[in-house]
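step 4 of 6: structure.
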Amino acid sequence: MGQEGVIHMSTRPTALLRRIEEHGEPPVSERIRARLQHANQRYFANDNIAAFILEGEVDELRGEVEAKMAEVLKSLVIDTESDHNTQGTARRVARMFLTEVFKGRYQPMPTVTEFPNIERLNELMIIGPITARSACSHHLCPILGKVWIGIMPNEHSNLIGLSKYARICDWVMSRPQIQEEAVMQLANILQHKVKPDGLAIVIEADHFCMHWRGVKDADSRMTNSVMRGSFLKDPDLRREFLSLLNKKDR
Ligand SMILES: [Zn+2]
């Protein structure tokens, strides 16, 4: 009987072993997706999902994307084995997506230290132009542009270092984006962090999906703005912001 048991174990794996053998461990993207769904958390292209990614999993994701990207190149009938130009393309694209151009989905928000407004500054501050680099959600084509931020502080506002505006902007833009949504996301974060009396953001960007494909010669530049608080209520302040912005290098 003992003999029979041994034979049984060595020739037929248990149900669990068989399942792992057949399907393997679920891919890392599936594990992350399961956590997001369990938490009822949206995971659109321009959402940040860093809180649902465990240590080391971005590297795993990179491997998964690389393998899938290699399949895309194969389906495009590109001989990546002989063509020295495309030999490392799947790896490079995976790295670019996860650690560069879409890193704003996978990395937590940059740390920003807020200082109380001890000097009670209440003068219009303009930050910009900040370079905005993004990609459209529709075609994953680059979007390159500039962002200007106007802050009207009051005594309850927090102040953050100038370079932090650029960092937060980069974090929001480094995702597949829709320009109108990007500017709202940026406004919501700054509103929350700085708590200004008024907040104004203008973004002007060039959409490469218009140059590169489709209508090609169409005017591909798009401008969006958000005005909140005193910028909405006070037309003079709004004019001051926009005129200062026009004087600046654009
Ligand atoms: Zn597009």
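step 5 of 6: annotate
 - Confidence is low (pLDDT under 50) at residues 1-12.
 - The pocket of zinc ion is lined by residues 136, 138-139, 141, 209 (CB under 6 Å).
step 6 of 6: archive
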